[in-house]
Amino acid sequence: MRRPYGLEGLPHQVTVYEVGPRDGLQNEAAVVPVEAKAEFVARLAGAGHKVIETTSFVHPKWVPQLADAEELLARVERRPGVRYPVLVPNERGLDRALAMEVDEIAVFASATETFAAKNLNRSLESQFDMFEPVVARAVAAGVRVRAYVSMCFADPWEGPTPIPQVVEVGERLLGLGCYELSLGDTIGVATPGHVTALIEAFGSPDRLAVHFHDTYGQALGNTLTALRAGVTTVDASTGGIGGCPYAESATGNLATEDLVWMLDGLGVETGLDLGKLVETSTWLAGLLGRPSPSRVVQALSKG
Ligand code: HMG
Ligand code: MG
After folding, report:
1. Is the pLDDT of residue 21 over 70?
2. What InterPro entries does the annotation carry (predicted)?
3. Is 15-302 assigned to CATH 3.20.20.70?
4. For the segment 135-155, what is each residue's pLDDT rounded down to a tens digit?
5. Does ligand 1 come within 6 angstroms of the Cβ of 65?
């Protein structure tokens, strides 16, 4: 047992929004069999996760790795007290999600023109025409809607993203009726001062979550900074798997184990069992045929 050493200005408790089954598996070269995906989700719930982003109802040709969304949801045993949100880009996706009786979805917008075209086949402006009826219909049906903004710090084609542009996109999404806005560092280039500046530009951290990819090894430092700025929801993927197929330079998300190691050490509650997470990542690494990139998984799985 480690003795925690706290730091001032941190929340007592953090919600870890697990994205491994969606953001992680969407970028794996191998298509993982649906039974294994269902087991992954069950293991995550068994490790204490209360929110597990399970799959995407996107076009199956765009993300073939998640083309089995219906089959997976039919297999996942939805435990009381655990949320199983899914990604939905448009009304066709919403129809599919509603048919599977999901109670939470996430729409995903771009902060830049180029990524809106590459990821959604829409312009920066016309992406909102796609999201507006999705959010309105979902909310009317009693389904909660989270929103992502991608490329919040920089974009591989356009360079640094202007902060006011991110804030405008984010506020429009919240204005549609989304309960939370997850700020995506899709290509993992953010550094702590930039994170603070972006959160401050929103005026309040209350409805913000953070979503860091660990491409440049900055995800943990950025997360600590976001927590000190008042954010209390952090996206992470067990084992650090992940990326975005439409942003080649994106690698895995912040590993849930790396996050939990830090938060346990700080005495911040997550409700997660680190040992069970590591067991899950070791099992998953066997399935994917490559070791987890998480340093904590590597250290703890050596025994
Ligand atoms: P489009 O080609 O413009 O679609 O793609 P469309 O509206 O013109 O429809 C064309 C055909 O696709 C139609 O069929 C539709 O029914 C069908 P047809 O009438 O011709 O037979 N279709 C669908 N079928 C099944 N499910 C659907 C669906 N939608 C249309 N949902 C679209 C537009 C948004 C669909 C496409 O661009 C797409 O699927 N994009 C998803 C890309 C993606 O999933 N990227 C990864 C997730 S984002 C991410 O990872 C970032 C994040 O982690 C945060 C961060 O890190 O920053 C969230
Ligand atoms: Mg992502």
Report:
1. yes
2. Aldolase_TIM (IPR013785), HMGL (IPR043594), PYR_CT (IPR000891)
3. yes
4. 999 999 999 999 999 999 999
5. no
